[in-house]
Each structure stands twice: as C-alpha cells, then as structure tokens.
Design goal:
Helices cover about 20% and strands about 30% of the residues. It is elongated and about 100 Å long. By secondary structure, the chain is α/β, with parallel strands linked by helices.
Length: about 475
C-alpha cells in the first residue's frame, strides 16, 4: 500500500451569525480556550505533515489563537475572502494542495469535541479501502433528532449515494437519522478534481463540500462511510446555548475523572468548575463553587473552600485555601494556609508553612518558610525571610510613580501594625517595627524602630519586646 503523507485542513472562516456576536465563532471559548484551539490540538495528535487553516472573519485574531497551539512552521493560513460555502472554503486552499500526493483530513473549527482516537479510526478505514480505490471516507453518526444536519443517503446495497442538506431535503429524506458530521478524509488530488465540478445550484446559493462525495461516486470512485457510535463528538457550536451545554459536558467529565481516577473528593460536582488541563492530587477536598482553570496543579491532601478561584497556579501538598480567595499565576508550597478572601497575584510565592490571611494581597513577592501575614496587608515586590510576622495593615510602598522597587525583610522579623515600608528598603534579621512606623531607610539587624520616619530606639536581644503591636 502506498503510504501517503497526511495533511489537515481546518475550516475556520465563518462568523457564526447565530452566536449573535461580533466575535468569530471559532474564537469563542470552551474550557478556557478558543474553539479552534481544541481542534488544532486534536489534529496535532495525529502528527500530520502540515495543518492548513482557512480563515476569514477576524482572520488575524484566529491566526494568533492557532499559533498559541501549533508551531508556526507546521501551519499554513489560507484566506477565504468571501464566505461562499464549505466547498469554496476548501477551494481556497487549492494552490497549496491541488497537486499534493497526500491524504487530506478536513475538520471544522467549531466541532471541538472530536477525539484523536476517532479520527485515527477514520484514517485507518480510509487507508484500508484505499487499495480498492477509495477517494473519500466520511464520518457519520445516527441521531434521534437529526434536524439541521445534512442527511446521508445510501443506496439499496447500503453504500453511499449522496448527502442532502436540510434545506434541500425531501420529506422522505428528512426522516433519515444518519447524518454527515462534516469530517472527511480525501485523496487530495481527487478532492480538487471533483470540487471543480461542484455548482452552487441549491437553496443557499453556496458551493457545498457535501456535494463532492456524490461527484466522486458518479465518476466511479469509491466513497466509504465510517459510522461512529458517539454522536456527542461531532456536536458543532452554532449558538451560545450549545456552547454552554458543551461546557457543562466537559466540566462533568473532568470532575468525574478527578473523583473516579484520582481520588479527589468533590462535595458538589454540579457546582464545581474544573478545566480539562487542571490536575488535582489524591485526598484533596474541593468545596462547592470552586473554579480551577488553566495550567493549575494542586497536590495531595489539600482543602479548597467555597468561592475560591485558582488559575495557572501551583499548589503543594497539605495546603488549605479558605473561602473566597483568588490565586493567579501563584506558587504555594506544602502546608500553607491561605485566606479567607486573600489574593495571590502573578509572581506570588509562599514557601512551606507560610500563612496569608483575610484581605491580604501578595504580588511578585516571596513569603518565606513559616512566615505569616494574617490581616489587611499588601505585599508587593518583596522578599520576606523565614519565621517573620507581618502585622495587620502593613503596606510595602513599592511604586514611586515611575518605577517599582523591592522591599527585603529578613528572618525572624516582626513588622508592627500599620507599618509602611517605602521601597527600596531592607529590614535586617531579628528586627521589630512599632505600630504605625514609616520605614524609609534600611534597618540594621536586631533593631527596634518606631516613628515616622522610623528611627532606631535600641538594639534588641533574644528577649521579645512586650510593647509592640504586631497585629497577629
């Protein structure tokens, strides 16, 4: 058998009028990613030689989305300047593909649930029939309610005869339950030969790709049908209701997998939102109304309380995240405690055993091992050592109106309530600031400072001062 290379053509030029949107349909998001990205990832799993993407509406934005999923060297963008039907979309790539001795897998950019395993089965059937001269293999499914889909019409021998679109179908043809998925594998050269014979004499006045298999059959070519058993994979997105339904389906699958395969306790699966790229460790408990999304990794034995959203973050083992917290591009080591109502912004790192309490915001900062900031505090562009306590109302004043500056706080430091640290500034190991102190200059180790601006009133030893309000 002739081993031909595989190319993929993804149709992604339409606006999608039923979405009632100014955004191209394939840019609407499912599981946090554009629809087109789901299709691109599935296509890439088949290791094709090249992926061709037909773009039109908001083409530049579609190209940008695709390139976040696929390497530029493997992608060719094809512009469909006027949307004159699926046949016209495929014809837009003629200059790239017409003379290729390859197999061409045609996918729709708005059918995100199709699995690579299903497409691999389609390709295997096409290749097994190719020795008999198969020019096309199409994927079909049967639906109880096929309204809106093109029907697959078979002849008396059960072989492919034609595809008829809903608007062009007779009453008898509308009773057929087998529908065309819009997914095909073609012998590339034969596809473009047949496409030249397709007309737009139909209710829509468009060039239908669905006419190509019938043209091939009339020319004596073999058209194979790969009938698939799972119709959920070929569901397209035509409106926002369908988008929401698919989102719900994906969430349900992901949560069920966490519970059944990874030993995660989900208190209320119907009100828990977990993205498909998220991983959660064994014996972690997720409470209702939690959102986990993006490239988030959560370790074993954690507790994530209600109202929390975690995005693109790393959370270690034994971490407790209390109610209504937001973690975005943060890193939390083992045995930390966060919240309630804490905000870890990008670049926040909590070392092992650190604690961040209610209404504390941490941005681009490291809070050291067993250190804590329990109340009403802003920590930005700071490096904080081990076993340090940050009192209530503390602010690292990191911005001077033009530039951001760093605050460095050492080990075993106690920062009193309402302290302001005007960066750039350093606080040495073992030092203490009194309540309401304004630190504008570096503080030596083991110093007690008070006032605005701060002044050293004495050196301190191993005994703790008793007159400092740390706001713990």
């Amino acid at each position: 058998m002739d081993n031909k290379p595989l190319d993929v053509l993804i149709l992604a030029a339409g606006l999608g009028t039923r979405m009632r949107s100014d955004i191209a349909k394939v840019l609407h998001r499912l599981d946090g990613r554009p629809l087109i990205n789901h299709v691109c990832r599935t296509a890439a799993a088949l290791a094709p030689r090249k992926v061709y993407v037909v773009v039109g509406h908001q083409g530049d934005e579609v190209c940008e989305a695709v390139l976040t999923e696929l390497e530029e060297e493997y992608v060719e963008f094809v512009w469909q300047r006027e949307q004159l039907g699926t046949g016209d979309a495929v014809n837009s790539a003629r200059e790239f593909l017409e003379n290729e001795h390859s197999e061409l897998l045609v996918l729709s950019g708005d059918v995100p649930m199709i699995r690579a395993e299903t497409l691999a089965g389609l390709l295997r059937q096409h290749q097994s029939h190719r020795g008999k001269g198969a020019a096309c293999t199409m994927l079909s499914v049967s639906l109880d309610e096929p309204s809106g889909y093109g029907r697959v019409i078979r002849d008396s021998a059960g072989l492919f005869e034609r595809i008829v679109e809903q608007k062009d179908a007779t009453a008898e043809e509308l009773e057929v339950g087998e529908i065309n998925s819009g997914i095909y594998c073609f012998e590339t050269a034969k596809l473009y030969e047949a496409l030249s014979k397709v007309s737009n004499h139909n209710a829509q006045g468009e060039f239908y790709l669905t006419d190509v298999p019938a043209v091939m059959r009339e020319a004596g070519e073999l058209v194979s049908i790969y009938k698939h058993g799972d119709n959920s994979e070929i569901e397209g997105i035509n409106d926002r209701r369908q988008l929401a339904e698919l989102e719900r389906t994906l969430r349900r699958r992901t949560v069920n997998k966490l519970m059944m395969d990874f030993g995660v306790t989900v208190i209320d699966p119907h009100n828990t939102y977990v993205g498909g790229s998220v991983s959660v460790g064994r014996d972690t408990v997720i409470h209702p109304n939690v959102t986990l999304e993006g490239d988030t990794r959560i370790g074993d034995g954690c507790v994530i309380r209600s109202g929390t959203r975690i995005k693109d973050s790393r959370v270690g083992h034994g971490v407790e995240v209390l109610d209504n917290c937001l973690l975005d591009n943060a890193e939390v080591r083992n045995n930390c405690r966060i919240g309630p109502s804490a905000h870890l912004r990008p670049g926040a790192v909590l070392e092992e055993g650190a604690r961040v309490g209610n209404f504390v915001e941490v941005k681009k900062s490291v809070l050291g091992r067993n250190s804590k900031a329990n109340h009403l505090t802003y920590i930005g562009d700071a490096r904080i050592g081990e076993n340090t306590n940050i009192g209530a109302g503390t602010i690292t004043c990191n911005y001077d109106g033009k530039n951001k500056h760093v605050t460095e706080i050492g080990d075993n430091v106690r920062i009193g309530s309402d302290t302001m640290l005007v960066a750039p500034v350093k606080v040495g190991d073992g030092s203490v600031t009194g309540a309401g102190t304004v630190v504008t200059k570096d503080i030596p180790p083991n110093s007690l400072v008070v006032g605005a601006p701060a002044r050293v009133i004495r050196k301190i030893g191993s005994e703790d001062p008793e007159d400092i309000d740390e706001g713990d």
